[in-house]
Amino acid sequence: NAGVMQNPRHLVRRRGQEARLRCSPMKGHSHVYWYRQLPEEGLKFMVYLQKENIIDESGMPKERFSAEFPKEGPSILRIQQVVRGDSAAYFCASSPGNNQETQYFGPGTRLLVL
Amino acid sequence: LAKTTQPISMDSYEGQEVNITCSHNNIATNDYITWYQQFPSQGPRFIIQGYKTKVTNEVASLFIPADRKSSTLSLPRVSLSDTAVYYCLVGVFNDMRFGAGTRLTVKP
């Protein structure tokens, strides 16, 4: 039973480019969460999605960041016009969603903005 | 949101039992308590979850007093490989927030 998959594992972008991070939840999971982690800091919640719905995006920056979880395919976290401050590890987690509180995390995508 | 407070860091030695306590004074009735472990450059890994009293699995035990305003993660006989950051989370499935965690260092 494959766990949460994220790709790419490492992503390098120049300032002003776009970054697309993908997350495939565990089989049977319909809820996806995105977190950002700066070096030596804890994870910061960004957004919580179900299939085709954004449930809670209270942690998302107001500009340049967007997320989706389409009916088919992985969840995508999109960062437009990246800046150096976007450099971080981005983790995706999934859960079954039926009042199951356990979130299972992927290995993360490390974004470096030059 | 139920805020959690944990020690920033702890040191221990191999073979000792380690107890990490988390305070969550405004925990809500429906909230569960969940602990995660994170190694450098990896995603958090689920350790244990509970609602009240005591929960035990092959990795750890979780003690929750009757008022549920705190919880204690107990790691029996730690080894060097248990050096990691441990996070205590409180909430229902769509409302959990990670704090800074407790950085546990196990020494030989």
Task: Furnish the topology, listing elements before pairings.
The complex is a heterodimer of chains A (about 110) and B (about 110).
Chain A: E1 5-7, E2 10-13, E3 19-24, E4 31-37, E5 43-50, E6 53-56, E7 65-68, E8 75-79, E9 88-95, E10 104-105, E11 109-113
Chain B: E1 9-13, E2 18-23, E3 32-38, E4 45-50, E5 53-56, E6 61-64, E7 70-75, E8 84-91, E9 102-107
Parallel strand pairs in B: 1-9
Antiparallel strand pairs in B: 2-7, 3-4, 3-8, 5-6, 6-7, 8-9
Number of helices of chain B: 0
Q: Percent of residues of chain B in helical segments?
A: under 10%
Structural class assignment of chain B: mainly beta
Which two chains share the most extensive interface? A-B, 27 and 23 residues
Features:
heterodimer; A: 114 residues; mainly beta; 7-stranded mixed β-sheet; 4-stranded antiparallel β-sheet; B: 108 residues; 5-stranded mixed β-sheet; 9 strands; globular
Give a written overview of the molecule.
- The complex is a heterodimer of chains A (114) and B (108).
- Helices cover 0% and strands 49% of the residues of chain A.
- With 114 residues, chain A is an all-beta fold.
- In chain A, strand 5 and strand 6 form a beta hairpin.
- The radius of gyration of chain A is 13 Å and the shape is globular.
- The model of chain A has no long low-confidence stretch (mean pLDDT 91).
- By secondary structure, chain B is mainly β.
- The model of chain B has no long low-confidence stretch (mean pLDDT 90).
- The chains are: A mainly beta (114), B mainly beta (108).
Quick structural overview:
The complex is a heterodimer of chains A (114) and B (108). By secondary structure, chain A is an all-beta fold.
